Amino acid sequence: MKTLLHVSTSPRGERSRSNQVGATYLAQWQAAHPEGRVVTRDLAAEPPSFVNSAWFEGAFTAPEGHSPAARTAMAESDHNIDQLFAADEIVITTPMFNLNLPAVLKAWIDQVVRAGRTFTIDENGYKGLTSDRKVTIIVATGGDFRPGSPAVGYNFLEPYLRGVLGFIGLTSLTFVYAANQSGGEEAATKGVADAKAEAETLAAA
Ligand SMILES: Cc1cc2nc3c(=O)[nH]c(=O)nc-3n(C[C@H](O)[C@H](O)[C@H](O)COP(=O)(O)O)c2cc1C
Hints:
By secondary structure, this protein is of the alpha/beta class. The chain has helices at about 15-30, 55-60, 70-85, 105-110, 155-165, 185-205, and strands at about 5-10, 35-40, 90-95, 120, 125-130, 135-140, 175-180.
């Protein structure tokens, strides 16, 4: 039985364009994998904790000496990493906020990128400890920041996610954009329709 982890970040629930395209992906995936299980992490509804001093203590000192706060911080990080490791496939649905990720998605990344669990360093440098798997990232944008567009140089979301997920071992990424969501009804509708068509093809693959 396959497991798909859906990490959702928009605070707009069903009105969210990234979630609407994500729903198309999930429906197609479920049709292709009738026995498959979808685990949903709604980061807007339940934001991950920010890294704090207890997290530092937990991640960088020996477990035997951990304070209760450090143990709690590591339990949250472990839970997020375990969900990631248990997934055969990952879908992230997200808006672009100010040229980059929503803060809740950055907070989730800060929980899962952890030395000794998802990456390590040795004499050869950094090495991701997450076995690669299919990751689809569905991005809703008010404008057009897609590769090939004139504003692509302002798109810090895609290069950052490629960098940080690659750092922990996830390199099989595909980005799907629902562009022009602030560009008037016609452009917004087309942006979602194009993204849904791409999502359907990807989910069935
Ligand atoms: C705080 C904030 C910042 C935003 N920054 C950008 C941006 O940098 N580029 C862009 O194209 N759209 C930007 N938008 C527009 C959203 O990306 C767009 O409305 C998107 O459809 C929201 O995603 P959702 O429909 O999944 O909720 C921003 C919206 C908000 C609220």
